[in-house]
Write a structure and sequence with these properties.
The structure is a single chain. The chain is about 75% helix and about 0% strand. The relative contact order is 0.09. The two termini are about 40 Å apart. It contains five helices and no strands. α3 runs antiparallel to α4. By secondary structure, it is mainly α.
Length: about 160
């Protein structure tokens, strides 16, 4: 009975496979949104103010960072928790595949969240005249919380690996 339960639990990891596949749909949605933004600004690019253009570019960078985060979570999560990707002989294989354990993945996700938050905070700072000071303070506090959390997770990981 114990052996059956252990095999069943081990096989249940495949429940995660459709979830990781679903992340590729989220990546597709982000790609569509990215190009929607690009096509939206093309006709008005010469009449835009520099600040408006910078804000749009920051939004595009934000989308790219989130897309990279999705790819990282999708592939490394699948490899760590479901099954190894069989890509031998494929010249297109990403060099970090198979090298990210769950601790490294956690730190990379935290760093990505800090980067995304930084981009968002930069957009807020460029728009300070339209945002209430209290709201800016909350954005700053949330960003600092992300930074401190990422730092603490990295520090704990370093201490525990010794």
């Amino acid at each position: 009975m114990e052996n059956f339960i252990e095999r069943l639990m081990y096989a249940s990891r495949w429940i995660m496979a459709p979830i990781y596949l679903g992340l590729s749909l989220a990546l597709l949605a982000l790609g569509l949104k990215f190009f929607q933004e690009v096509f939206h600004i093309l006709p008005v690019i010469f009449s835009m103010k520099e600040v408006e253009l910078i804000l749009v570019v920051l939004s595009l960078i934000d989308i790219a960072l989130v897309g990279g985060l999705i790819v990282m979570v999708m592939f490394s999560g699948y490899e760590n928790f479901v099954s190894r990707l069989d890509l031998e002989g494929n010249d297109d294989k990403l060099n970090w595949l198979g090298k990210l354990d769950s601790g490294s993945l956690k730190n990379k996700v935290a760093a990505s969240i800090v980067a995304i938050s930084s981009i968002h905070l930069l957009k807020v700072f460029m728009n300070t005249e339209t945002i209430a000071n209290e709201k800016i303070q909350w954005y700053l506090l949330i960003h600092i919380t992300f930074v401190l959390s990422a730092f603490a997770m990295g520090y704990l990981d370093k201490v525990l690996r010794k």
